[in-house]
From TrEMBL:
It is a single-pass membrane protein. This is Beta-klotho. It comes from Coilia grayii. Keywords: Cell membrane, Glycoprotein, Membrane, Repeat, Signal, Transmembrane, Transmembrane helix. InterPro entries: GH, GH_1_N_CS, Glyco_hydro_1.
Length: 1055
C-alpha cells in the first residue's frame, strides 16, 4: 500500500458493513452545517513550494504538547495477574484458534512500567498518553475495584509526575470487561453505558487530582464497525447493520454522560479537560476532476465519506448535536434519533478535538466503496477539514504514526520519513491554514500487539523482542529522530542558512546546456544564388523568362541560409547567457567512425552554428560525445558499437581520431571542449558484469586523457580552449543519519561516482583509483583471484596526471543512500543479466522533498554540499563549473517550480562560493527548449510557438544582476558586457512580445498604405484641376524598343 495515496476499488464484502456506509445510496447532496466541503474547493494548497523553501523549516510554539502513547491491551500483558479480570480481547484471541496471537504478555508493560517511564524520559516529551485497563480496575466491569490495579496506575502516574511528564489518560481503549459483554451484550445495551459512567467516576475520584487531560474512549468508529459490524475486532459480532448504529449511539451517550459528570463534579477543583479521540481518513476526488464542471458531485461524495467516518461521532459532539444528514439519508431506519433534549445534552461535550490519524482507520477506509475517489495520507487536509467543519477547535493529535514490517528491528529508516512527513503536515496546517493544533502524540512508545495483525507489524519507537524472555526496550532510530524533533521543537533549518546577498565574480560563466544539437538542414533560404536574369511578361502572357546570354554574379551558400540556426540563437539570445553548451553528433559526422568519411553537410551546419554563435558574443562549449540511451549505438558510430563500444580499446583510438578532426575543423570558435559527458553514467550501461563495467570506465578515462594531450600539444597554442569531461554529481545523504552503515554507504557512493573518475587525474599526482574503491571491490569478493579493477601502466599514469583543466559537474538532485541488503553477485561477462549498482547502495526519496513530475527531488542545499565535498577532496588546484542543472516542470508558461529551482540552486551556489570558498566559475541551466512536451526547457516546444516560460525572465534577471545583490544600488559590482551583447535588452523585449509586435507592425503598415492612398487621391484631384486650367503638351511616348534598350543598359552596368 502506498503511503501517499491508495487507489481503492469496490471490494466484495459483507453488506453488514456497507449498508450504512455505501456512498452510492445517496440520492441527493446533503452536507453538514459546517464548511468542511470547502476543503476540496480550495485552490491548490499553499505549501512551502510556493514560498522560499521547498520544505517548511520552522518550529512549533513553545507551549506545544509533545507526547507519546500506548494502550493497555496492546502493551500491558499480565492478562490474568493480580486480580485482573478477562476482557473481550482476551476471549477473542483465546477462542479464535491455536495459531492466533494474543496480548497475554505483549510488551509486558504491567511489569516493566518503570522501563516505559525511562523510555518516555529518553524522548523528552511533556506527555505520556496511556489507557487504563477497565477489567484490571474492575474485573467484572462494576462492583468493587481491584486494589492491585489501582496501586499500579497510582505508581505509574506518580512516577511520571516525578519526571515532569503529564499523564494523558484514556478511560476506554477497546478492552471491555468480558462480564459486561456476556451479561448485557456489551455496547449494544444501555446498561454498559451506565457501567461506564460508574467506572469513569471512580477514575476521576482516584486519579483526577494528578491528571489534567482525559479521553473517554479511543476511536469509537472502529469499536462500532470492526467490533459489532464486521467482527474483525473483539467482541467479533457481525449482526444486522442497525446494531452498529445502536453501538455508536450508546458510545456517544456514554461519552456525553461522563463529560457532564466531570464538568459538574470534578472540573471545579481538578481543572482538567476532557474529550474523546476520533479516527479519520482522508479522501481526494478522482484525479483530474478538480474543476467546477466535473468536481461538484465528486466533492460531495468525498464529504459524505468523511461524514460517514469521523463526522458520525464528531457532528453530534462538536457540531449540531445530531448525526450528519448524509449519514441519516443513506441509512434510513437504521440510525437512531436524538431527541431535542439529547441533542442539547450531547452537543459541546468536548473541551478540545482529539484526533487519531493512523493505519487502523485508513485500512477501514480502504474497504469503503469509493467509486474512483482516492484515499490519501494527508493529515494537513484532515486538520483543515476539521477547522472548517467545526469552527476551528483546538486539536490534539492523540495518535499519529505508521507501521513497519515485523522483521524491521532498530533500523526503521522509513518510519523516520513517514513521521517527518506527518509532522510536516501538522506544521503546514498550523502555519499556512491557521489550524489550532495544541499537541502531537507519536504512536506508539513500544512495539506491541497490533490487534487483528498480531505481531506481524510494529509501530513502536522502542524495539521489543517478542521471541525472547526479556522484553527490553531498545530505542529505534525513529526514537532518536523524534527525540531530536522534540528537543528542537520542530525542524530547524540546519541544511541552509537564510537568503544570501552577493554577486558572482566578473567573468562567471552564465550558461545554457543542451544535449546533442540536431542538424536541421531545412528550412533553407537560398537567396541570391541563381545566376540568371529574368524578364517578366515579355510576350504579354505574364510569364517570367530568363534572358539568354546573360550571367549575373552570385554568392555562395551562407550560414544565414539555415533558418533553424537563426531561430535557435534567437531563443538563446533572450536568456542573456554568456556561454552555450551543446554536443556534436558523432555518429552523424563520422558515420563509419573514420575521419576520411565525413558528412560534409553536417560539418557545415555545425561550423555555421558556431560562427553565428560567435557573432552574438556567446562562447561555445562543445561536447564531443554525449551518449544517447535512445540510440541503439549509444550515440557512437554503429561500427564501433558493433565491436563492443567502450569495452574495445579500438573505440578509444577512434575517439582520438574523431576529437582531432573536430579540433581541426571547429576549434577556432570553441571556448571549452567537453570530451565525454558523464562517463560515470555511461559505464553503467556496460553492467553485465563487474569486469565489463570497470573495463568500460577504464577506457573512458584513457580516451579523455589521450584527447586532452592531443589538444594540449597540437591545438592549445593556437586556439587556447580548455578541455575537461563532465560527471553526473548527485549529492548523497545517509538515508538514516543515525546509522554508521548508512553514513558509510553515502560516502562510498560519492567516492565511486566522483572520486573513481577524478582521483586518477587530480589525487596524489594522478594515475590511480581511490584505495577505497579497490578495497571495497576486493572485500565484497566480486571475483576470485585477480582484482577486476584495472591498474594504469606507468605510461598511462603520466598521461592521466593533471589531464583536466577544471572540474565539470552535472548536478540535479540529492539522493538518500542506504546499503543494499545483499552483496552484488558476480555475473559472468557473457551473461545478459544486469547488475545492481557497483557501489552496493540503495536509494530512497524523502517524502517531504518536493518531487517533480518525472520523480526528481528538488533539494537546493545538495548542490552546496557536493561542491564543498569536491573542494574538500581536491582543494583549490582546479576550479569547478556546474555544467548542467535543471528540473522538469509541466507548466506551459508560469513554471513556478523551475523558477524556484533556479533561484534557490543559484543561491546555494553563491553560498558555496562566498561562505565555503569554492572556486566556482560557472553555472549552466539545463536546457534551452522542449522538444515535444513541456519538460526541462526554458522555452516551449516549436509547435507551441517556442514561447518563453517564466523561468527565462527569472534566470535572465539573476544574470543581469550577477547574482543576488543587496537592494542598495551603490553596492552593485558592474561587469563589462561584450559589445555584441550590449544591446540585447531590446532583443529580449522583442522575443517576449512577438505577437504584440507583429500586430503593431501590421497596424502600422495598414495605416501607411491607407495614408498613401489618401494622399495619392488628393494629389490626383489637384492635378486634374490644374490640367483643366492649362493646355497640356503631349508626352513623349516610350516604345517597346526604349524599354528594352534601358533594361540592357542596366544589365551591362551590373556586369
Amino acid at each position: 500500500m502506498s503511503t501517499s495515496q491508495v487507489l481503492v476499488g469496490v471490494p466484495k464484502v459483507s453488506l453488514l458493513l456497507f449498508a450504512f456506509l455505501s456512498v452510492g445510496s445517496w440520492k441527493q447532496v446533503w452536507c453538514s452545517s459546517g464548511d468542511g466541503v470547502k476543503q476540496w474547493q480550495k485552490p491548490p494548497a499553499l505549501s512551502s513550494q510556493h514560498n522560499k523553501s521547498l520544505y517548511l523549516h520552522a518550529t512549533f510554539p513553545s507551549h506545544f504538547l509533545w507526547g507519546v502513547g500506548t494502550s493497555a491491551y496492546q502493551t500491558e500483558g499480565s492478562w490474568n495477574r493480580e486480580g485482573k479480570g478477562p476482557s473481550i480481547w482476551d476471549c477473542f484471541t483465546h477462542t479464535r484458534g491455536a495459531n492466533i496471537e494474543t496480548g497475554d504478555t505483549a510488551s509486558d508493560s504491567y511489569a516493566r512500567w518503570q522501563e516505559d517511564v525511562k523510555a518516555v524520559k529518553y524522548l523528552g516529551t511533556q506527555t505520556y498518553a496511556f489507557s487504563l485497563s477497565w477489567p484490571r480496575l474492575f474485573p467484572d466491569g462494576v462492583g468493587n475495584p481491584n486494589p492491585d490495579g489501582v496501586a499500579h496506575y497510582q505508581r505509574l502516574i506518580s512516577s511520571l509526575q516525578a519526571e515532569g511528564i503529564q499523564p494523558v489518560l484514556t478511560l476506554y481503549h477497546w478492552d471491555l470487561p468480558l462480564a459486561l459483554q456476556q451479561l448485557y451484550g456489551g455496547w449494544n445495551n444501555e446498561s454498559t453505558v451506565e457501567a461506564f459512567v460508574e467506572y469513569a467516576t471512580f477514575c476521576f475520584q482516584m486519579f483526577g487530582g494528578s491528571v489534567k487531560y482525559w479521553l473517554t474512549m479511543h476511536n469509537p468508529y472502529l469499536i462500532a464497525v470492526q467490533g459489532y459490524g464486521t467482527g474483525v475486532h473483539a467482541p467479533g459480532e457481525s449482526r444486522d447493520p442497525a446494531s452498529v448504529f445502536v453501538v455508536g449511539h450508546n458510545l456517544i451517550r456514554a461519552h456525553a454522560k461522563v463529560w457532564h459528570v466531570y464538568n459538574t463534579h470534578f472540573r471545579p477543583h481538578q481543572n482538567g479537560q476532557i474529550s474523546l479521540t476520533l479516527g479519520a481518513h482522508w479522501i481526494e476526488p478522482l484525479k483530474g476532476q478538480f474543476n467546477p464542471a466535473q468536481s461538484s458531485a465528486n466533492v460531495a461524495l468525498c464529504q459524505k465519506s468523511m461524514e460517514a467516518v469521523i463526522g458520525w461521532f464528531a457532528n453530534p459532539i462538536h457540531g449540531t448535536g445530531d448525526y450528519p444528514a448524509s449519514l441519516k439519508d443513506a441509512n434510513q431506519g437504521l440510525v437512531p434519533e436524538f431527541s431535542p433534549e439529547e441533542r442539547a445534552f450531547v452537543k459541546g461535550t468536548a473541551d478540545f478535538f482529539s484526533l487519531a490519524f493512523g493505519p487502523d482507520t485508513l485500512r477501514v477506509g480502504q474497504r469503503l466503496p469509493l467509486f474512483g475517489q482516492v484515499l490519501s495520507m494527508d493529515l494537513r487536509k484532515v486538520l483543515g477539514w476539521i477547522q472548517l467543519e467545526y469552527n476551528s477547535p483546538a486539536v490534539l493529535v492523540a495518535e499519529s504514526g505508521w507501521f513497519t514490517n515485523a522483521s524491521v528491528r532498530e533500523e526503521d529508516t522509513l518510519a523516520i520519513y513517514l513521521m517527518r512527513r506527518l509532522l510536516g503536515q501538522v506544521l503546514e496546517a498550523m502555519v499556512y491554514d491557521g489550524a489550532r493544533v495544541v499537541g502531537y502524540t507519536a504512536w506508539s512508545l513500544v512495539d506491541g500487539f497490533e490487534w487483528n495483525y498480531g505481531y506481524s507489524v510494529r509501530r513502536g519507537l522502542f524495539y521489543v523482542d517478542f521471541n525472547g524472555m526479556d522484553r527490553n526496550r531498545i530505542p529505534k532510530t525513529s526514537a532518536r529522530f523524534y527525540r531530536q524533533v522534540v528537543m528542537n521543537r520542530g525542524f530547524a533549518d540546519n541544511k541552509t542558512s537564510q537568503s544570501i546577498h552577493g554577486q558572482f565574480p566578473c567573468g562567471f560563466q552564465w550558461g545554457v546546456a543542451d544535449p546533442v544539437l540536431h542538424v536541421r538542414l531545412h528550412p533553407y533560404s537560398a537567396q541570391f544564388t541563381d545566376p540568371s536574369l529574368y524578364r517578366w511578361n515579355f510576350s504579354g502572357d505574364g510569364s517570367v523568362q530568363p534572358v539568354s546570354g546573360v550571367t549575373l554574379q552570385t554568392r555562395g551558400p551562407q550560414c544565414t541560409d539555415f533558418l533553424s540556426i537563426r531561430r535557435h540563437l534567437h531563443l538563446l539570445e533572450a536568456t542573456r547567457a554568456s556561454h552555450y553548451r551543446f554536443a556534436l553528433d558523432w555518429s552523424l559526422l563520422l558515420p563509419d567512425g573514420d575521419p576520411s568519411h565525413v558528412d560534409q553537410e553536417a560539418l557545415r551546419y555545425y561550423r555555421c552554428f558556431l560562427m553565428e554563435l560567435h557573432k552574438l558574443g556567446v562562447k561555445a562549449v562543445l561536447t564531443l560525445y554525449h551518449s544517447s540511451h535512445r540510440s541503439p549505438s549509444l550515440g557512437m558510430p554503429k561500427p564501433l558499437q558493433a565491436v563492443g563500444g567502450w569495452l574495445n580499446y579500438s573505440t578509444v583510438e577512434a575517439f582520438e581520431a574523431y576529437a582531432s578532426f573536430c579540433f581541426q575543423e571547429l576549434g577556432s570558435w570553441v571556448h571549452t571542449w567537453i570530451t565525454i559527458n558523464e562517463p560515470n553514467r555511461l559505464a553503467e550501461l556496460y553492467n553485465t558484469s563487474v569486469d565489463t563495467h570497470l573495463r568500460a570506465a577504464h577506457h573512458l578515462l584513457l580516451a579523455h586523457a589521450h584527447v586532452w594531450h592531443i589538444y594540449n600539444d597540437q591545438y592549445r597554442p593556437l586556439q587556447g580552449a580548455q578541455v575537461t569531461f563532465t560527471l553526473h554529481a548527485d549529492w548523497a545523504e545517509p538515508a538514516n543519519p543515525y546509522l554508521e552503515t548508512h553514513k558509510a554507504a553515502a560516502e562510498r557512493f560519492l567516492v565511486f561516482e566522483l572520486g573513481r573518475f577524478l582521483d586518477p587525474f587530480l589525487a596524489n599526482g594522478g594515475g590511480a583509483y581511490p584505495d577505497q574503491v579497490r578495497e571495497y571491490i576486493a572485500e565484497k569478493g566480486h571475483t576470485v583471484g585477480k582484482s577486476p579493477l584495472p591498474y594504469f601502466t606507468e605510461q598511462e599514469k603520466k598521461k592521466l596526471g593533471g589531464a583536466l583543466d577544471f572540474i565539470a559537474l552535472n548536478h540535479f538532485t540529492t539522493r538518500l543512500v542506504s546499503p543494499r541488503n545483499s552483496p552484488i553477485p558476480n555475473v559472468q561477462p557473457e551473461s545478459n543479466q544486469q547488475l545492481g549498482p557497483i557501489h552496493d547502495c540503495s536509494f530512497l526519496n524523502d517524502p517531504n522533498w518536493h518531487v517533480s513530475n518525472l520523480g526528481q527531488a528538488v533539494v537546493p542545499w545538495g548542490l552546496r554540499k557536493v561542491l564543498s565535498w569536491v573542494k574538500g577532496r581536491y582543494g583549490d588546484s582546479h576550479p569547478i563549473v556546474v555544467m548542467a542543472s535543471g528540473v522538469d516542470d509541466q507548466a506551459s508558461h508560469d513554471d513556478k517550480l523551475r523558477q524556484t529551482y533556479i533561484r534557490e540552486y543559484l543561491e546555494e551556489a553563491l553560498k558555496a562560493h562566498q561562505l565555503d570558498g569554492v572556486d566556482l566559475k560557472g553555472f549552466y541551466f539545463w536546457n534551452l527548449q522542449d522538444r515535444h512536451t513541456f519538460h526541462f526547457g526554458l522555452f516551449g516546444p516549436a509547435h507551441y510557438q517556442s514561447k518563453p516560460k517564466g523561468s527565462v525572465r527569472a534566470y535572465r534577471d539573476i544574470i543581469s544582476h550577477g547574482g543576488f545583490p543587496p537592494e542598495e544600488r551603490d553596492t552593485l559590482k558592474p561587469c563589462q558586457m561584450p559589445a555584441a551583447r550590449a544591446s540585447c535588452a531590446v532583443c529580449i523585449n522583442i522575443t517576449e512580445n512577438i505577437p504584440l509586435l507583429f500586430f503593431g507592425i501590421c497596424v502600422f503598415i495598414s495605416a501607411a498604405i491607407l495614408t498613401g492612398v489618401l494622399v495619392g487621391l488628393v494629389r490626383r484631384r489637384i492635378s486634374v484641376g490644374r490640367g483643366r486650367a492649362m493646355c497640356p503638351t503631349s508626352p513623349t511616348r516610350l516604345t517597346r524598343q526604349h524599354w528594352e534598350r534601358f533594361a540592357m543598359q542596366r544589365v551591362v552596368r551590373r556586369m
